[in-house]
């Protein structure tokens, strides 16, 4: 389980295909603290550490289903990936409850600078039956974009905006998101449970 508070934007060192799997090797400041089998969220996708090559790097593997649902398949060496280690149960929940199970991707439609911050608009597509199960945003609700816990504004049936403060822009891969960029979305798990209860 995660909170959507990104620790670091890591750099992809290698991306190697093996059948339907993608092995990603990344460099980050806390790689030496990681252990095999540890869970780390990558752009919001929970992946397991499978190797520790050294030199402040580690490797994870994404299966085809993960690649189909996320933007990880498009990663190349040099790309930045938002990282978060799993939440400590004795810590504060600074963001919201994030599972690390990406629901779908979205495309950035616009970036608008306003008084020192930036508004990003994203558009996504989910079938109506999935929206009825809580795969949607609500005004002032929570959403995870590339692993970042954010508050929704201007929620529509297939789009929403989020405000990004300078700190988040500088310390996550939002600094590289522009119109046309594909991002990962995880809708709020509480909303999914409420939608499920309402359908019973």
List the helices and strands and how they pair.
Layout: E1 8-18, E2 21-27, E3 39-42, E4 45-54, E5 57-62, H1 64-69, E6 80-85, E7 104-114, E8 117-124, H2 128-131, E9 142-145, E10 148-151, E11 159-164, H3 166-171, E12 182-187, H4 189-199
Antiparallel strand pairs: 1-2, 1-6, 2-5, 3-4, 3-6, 4-5, 7-8, 7-12, 8-11, 9-10, 9-12
Q: What does the model show?
A:
The structure is a single chain. This protein is mainly beta. Helix content is 14%, strand content 42%. The protein is built from four helices and twelve strands; from the N terminus they run E-E-E-E-E-H-E-E-E-H-E-E-E-H-E-H. The strands form two sheets. It has a six-stranded antiparallel barrel. The chain has a six-stranded antiparallel beta sheet with strand order 10-9-12-7-8-11. A hairpin with a 2-residue loop joins strand 1 and strand 2.
């Amino acid at each position: 389980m995660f909170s959507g508070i990104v620790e670091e934007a890591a750099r992809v060192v290698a991306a190697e295909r093996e059948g339907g799997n993608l092995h990603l090797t990344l460099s980050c400041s806390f790689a030496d603290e990681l252990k095999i089998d540890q869970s780390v969220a990558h752009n919001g996708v929970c992946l397991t550490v499978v190797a520790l090559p050294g030199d402040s790097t580690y490797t994870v593997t994404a299966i085809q289903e993960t690649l189909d649902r996320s933007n990880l398949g498009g990663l190349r060496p040099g790309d930045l990936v938002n990282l978060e280690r799993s939440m400590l149960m004795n810590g504060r929940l600074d963001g919201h409850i994030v599972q690390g199970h990406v629901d779908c991707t979205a495309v950035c439609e616009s970036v608008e600078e306003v008084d020192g911050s930036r508004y990003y608009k994203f558009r996504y597509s989910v079938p109506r039956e999935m929206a009825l199960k809580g795969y949607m945003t609500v005004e002032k609700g929570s959403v995870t974009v590339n692993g970042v816990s954010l508050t929704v504004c201007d929620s529509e049936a297939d789009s929403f905006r989020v405000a990004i403060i300078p700190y988040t822009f500088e310390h996550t891969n939002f600094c590289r998101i522009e119109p046309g960029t594909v991002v990962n979305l995880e809708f709020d798990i509480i909303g999914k449970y409420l939608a499920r209860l309402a359908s019973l």
